[in-house]
């Protein structure tokens, strides 16, 4: 889903992107640390009768890890927003420059198409750069770190993670093929509607003089209805995709929970390692869920 033109635009900021990826790895280790501390405290409080005073340092450390993770996440978001603004500004400048340098070629396209491209088209890149790319970075780092820790802690839970994780991208690709077609159709209709409005507004007096007002109103209503229908189809696919991702992730977590519960019941596992795996399970699937939502934003940006 990486567009080579957009990748070329963000290459000047590769140092910032590397820092963001490193920050993601640190955040993943924070999740591991937080989950392990919670599992350790639960194990000691339940089975070893750990005193409240002895648990205080762990709680302070837990709070510190939460703060570090939140700060890193905030900095990442600011950096990606900064890159997005710079890329959008440069693209708008290049579009306007191209129109000014080759005005005759620019005139071959309707004004509405240029207007849609310079405004809405460039704006849609924001969701790609601030939504899709950060989620892609998280998807490539968080699950990998958590999967390694799960295998080290409890290989059976790690194996369930490993087997169920590919199901989410598989269904996402299947739905994405349908969504891509509908996104292109929606963008085409949006351009058509923009061209119609841009051509109509300067000629309102002529339309009224030739008594064509009602005809133009009907045409406007027809174009608007087509665009609304296309938008609803895109939203329907987005909701279907979100449902599938949530369903698969929920079932996967349930399988892990049942497996851990049965093994604990029959004394086939120790509490600390399996409880740790249970705590990181939602965090393991969360990037896949968020990536699914960002995937549709990315398609809008690339189509535009």
Automatic annotation (TrEMBL):
<protein>
    <submittedName>
        <fullName>Thiol reductant ABC exporter subunit CydD</fullName>
    </submittedName>
</protein>
<keyword id="KW-1133">Transmembrane helix</keyword>
<feature type="transmembrane region" description="Helical">
    <location>
        <begin position="237"/>
        <end position="258"/>
    </location>
</feature>
<feature type="transmembrane region" description="Helical">
    <location>
        <begin position="159"/>
        <end position="179"/>
    </location>
</feature>
<dbReference type="Pfam" id="PF00664">
    <property type="entry name" value="ABC_membrane"/>
</dbReference>
<dbReference type="InterPro" id="IPR039421">
    <property type="entry name" value="Type_1_exporter"/>
</dbReference>
<keyword id="KW-0472">Membrane</keyword>
<feature type="domain" description="ABC transmembrane type-1">
    <location>
        <begin position="18"/>
        <end position="300"/>
    </location>
</feature>
<dbReference type="InterPro" id="IPR011527">
    <property type="entry name" value="ABC1_TM_dom"/>
</dbReference>
<feature type="transmembrane region" description="Helical">
    <location>
        <begin position="54"/>
        <end position="75"/>
    </location>
</feature>
<dbReference type="GO" id="GO:0005524">
    <property type="term" value="F:ATP binding"/>
</dbReference>
<feature type="transmembrane region" description="Helical">
    <location>
        <begin position="16"/>
        <end position="42"/>
    </location>
</feature>
<dbReference type="GO" id="GO:0005886">
    <property type="term" value="C:plasma membrane"/>
</dbReference>
<dbReference type="GO" id="GO:0140359">
    <property type="term" value="F:ABC-type transporter activity"/>
</dbReference>
<feature type="transmembrane region" description="Helical">
    <location>
        <begin position="132"/>
        <end position="153"/>
    </location>
</feature>
<dbReference type="InterPro" id="IPR036640">
    <property type="entry name" value="ABC1_TM_sf"/>
</dbReference>
<keyword id="KW-0812">Transmembrane</keyword>
